[in-house]
Fold Aminotransferase DegT.
Amino acid sequence: MDASNPQSEALAPLAFNDLAAQQDRIKDRIDAAIADVLARGQYILGPQVAELEGALAKFCGATHCVACANGTDALSLVLMAEDIGAGDAVFVPSFTFVATAEAVSGRGATPVFVDIDAATYNMDDASLGRAIDAAKTAGLRPRMVIAVDLYGQPADYETLGAVALENGLTLVADAAQSFGATMGGKGVGALADYTTTSFFPAKPLGCYGDGGAIFTEDGTKADILRSLRFHGKGRHKYENVRVGLNSRLDTLQAAILLVKLDIFADEIAARQEIATRYGEILRGVETPVVAPSATSVWAQYTVRLPESIDRETVQTACGKAGVPTVVYYPIPLHQQPAYAQHPCDPAGLGRSEEAAARVLSLPMHPYLTPEIQTRVAQTLAAALQEPA
Ligand SMILES: *Cc1c(COP(=O)(O)O)cnc(C)c1O
């Protein structure tokens, strides 16, 4: 390519998630926040951690927030707080990031895979009911359901909560992708018994490393979680009253998140505008469906390709034109070698398998311009017309 040709400059590869654009906006404040941490020297559980916990709880309307090292640990800590282990069944969607099931297996419990709703990609309540029966038949104790808010949209907690209540299960929201979203006017963080989230850099609210948090209304459980994240500490750090983890959020990351939280509501509004515009201009694909009572934070903008289309061919054509695309997730967990032995909804997980075969995520971040969106839409339309 000729670099002096303005045409080739216009076709420079796009960012899938442009964290540099965000950094440009807040660089001075981030630098000041980091300098403040260095000046105080309290690198572990410094004052910024408690300040962030308070600010996050307030943002989403939860009572308690306990920060921890990452979103996977957040799930492990919840499983530990509920004493879940060998012989216990924990119901998880098959169409999710592996961490949801990994945390369960890591505690020695059994993940039981549930299918999704075809429109929202979130856990289906009828499938959950069948999976509970299957777990009992397999001799497991049903204990917990971990719903996932895939791509940034909350699962249907009202319906899932009714099934959980009926069966005596603890309801957990894996909100690694959805912090900042709402359902029925309530914030993610206040929709389940526990909500876990992640501050991995690419999540809607991300730090500059690993980070996570847990939300709950239960003060006793919040205290247990604070103990568990600090080696099971008791009244002081050298009294150990339970077996815990080393899973604290770094003060540096808390300070960075406090700056990012300041612009988060504005970024969520921008994501919504961008998602609406994508919905208007994309052709030849099924665009995302958000339940009428919900809002999404659009962690991903994920379309479904027609069945007749070869996804790899589309991805290659888009990639050549500088438009990155990603498949979240190509293999449902019940088909993963490390998880295939676990029980599933006996009716099968056909909707998870179909989604895994046909979804495609497009560039999405709060700094996407209308011009770039038009380029994405035109590139995708052109790619779809290519012979498979
Ligand atoms: C990112 C993610 C996690 C794990 O978060 P980490 O902070 O990377 O450990 C868990 N569940 C889902 C659905 C995720 O997207």
Q: What stands out?
A: Residues 70-72, 96-97, 99-100, 148, 174, 176-177, 198, 200, 210, 212 surround pyridoxal-5'-phosphate (CB under 6 Å). Residues 277 and 370 are 8 Å apart (CA to CA). The mean pLDDT is 96.
